Amino acid sequence: MKIKFWILMSTIFAFLLIAFFQCRKPDSSVKPFGQVNGQEVYLYTLENENGVRLEITNYGGTIVRWLVPDREGNLGDITLGFNTIEDYVDKSPYFGCLIGRYGNRIAHGKFVLNEKTYTLAANNEPGGIPCHLHGGIKGFDKRIWDAKFIDGEAGKGLKLHYVSKDGEEGYPGNLDVTVTYQLTNENKLIIDYNATTDQPTPVNLTNHAYFNLKGEGNGNILDHELTIFADYMTPVDEGLIPTGEILPVAGTPLDFTEPHEIGERINMDHEQLKFGLGYDHNWVLNNQAGELIMAATVIDSTTGRFMEVFTTEPGIQFYSGNFLDGNLIGKSGKSYPIRSGFCLETQHYPDSPNHPHFPSTILNPGEVYQTRTVYQFSVK
Ligand code: GLA
Known about the structure:
It is a single chain. By secondary structure, the protein is mainly beta. It contains 3 helices and 27 strands. The strands form 7 sheets. It has a 9-stranded antiparallel β-sheet with strand order 11-12-13-14-27-23-22-17-20, with no helix packed on it. Strand 3 and strand 4 form a beta hairpin. The radius of gyration is 22 Å and the shape is globular. The site of alpha-D-galactopyranose has 11 residues, from strand 24 and strand 25.
C-alpha cells in the first residue's frame, strides 16, 4: 500500500517537473531580430516534416531564409537576403518582402480615381523618368506588421496584419491588410493576401522574393530554365511603364511558353530587353479567370531543384535581377552580382490605374481583396 502510494507520488512529481520545464523552454520558433526605430522586430520560423524551413520577419513580412532540399536531400537557402535587420532597413532592393499598397510602377506617381487626381511619391527613375514604385518611399515592405502563428487548414502558418492609414504614401482610404504564409508538408508555401478599405483605392499586393535555386550567393541564375504560361505581355517604354498594348510573345525573346534558360536570349538586340536591361516585364497569364493555376516553373538542373508558381492573379512580373551589381553582400558573406537572383512577382499589371482596359485594381468599400499565390518545391 505504502509502496503504491510513493510510486504514485513520484509519478505525479515527475509529470509536474516535466510540465514546469516545458513551460520555461523558450519558443525556438520566434527570435528577436533587432529593432527598427526603437521597435522590436522578430524572426518567425515555419518548418515542415521534410525540413523545409522559412524564416520570416514581421518587418515588411520579409522572407529572410527559405531552405529547400536538392536532389541529394541537401538543404540550401534559395532566397537572397541579409543577416541583419540593419541591412534590410538600409539597403534592401526589396529582398523577400511584401509589396504594397501597389506592386510595381505607377506612371509619374499620378492617377485619377472618381474624378480626383492623386499624387504619390515618385521614388524611382528608370531611364531618368520619375515614377512611383512598390508603394512609395515607405511601402508595406518597410512597415512593421503584427504577426501571429496560426494552425492553417494547409499547414502551420504566420498571419501578418497591417493597417495602412488613409493618405499613407498618398493613397486614399484606410486599408486593412492581412497576409498569411502557410507551409505545407508538400513543400508548398501558400501566400494569401486579403484586404478591405473604407474608400476606393488601388491595391496590388505581392511578394518580392529573389530566388537562386543553386542557393543564394552561388553565382547567377542564367542557366535556370524558365517556363511562363503566358502568350501575351505588356510592353513598356524606356521608363518601364506599360505602353498600354498587350502583345503576343511569339517570335520574341520574351516567349517562355516552352522552357528556356534565362540567359539564352537575354542579351539579344530587342527593344524590350534594352529598356528592361534584361527581363523586367509583366506577362499576361493565360489564366484570366481568377482560379489558382500554374503560372510559371523554374528548374536548376545542377541541383535538381524545381519550383512551380501557381496564382489567382492575371499577371506575373519576371525580373532577372538586372539592378544587382555586386555591391550587396548576402547571408553567406558572398556578393550578389548582376542576375544572381530572379523574381516572379504575381500581380495585376503595372500602372493599371492609368489603363482602364487592364483588369481593374480598384478596391471599393464592401469588397474583399483576395488573392492566392503558391510556390511549390520538388526535385527533378
Ligand atoms: C521590380 C521592378 C524592377 C526593380 C525591382 C526592384 O521587380 O520591376 O524594375 O525595380 O522591382 O529592384
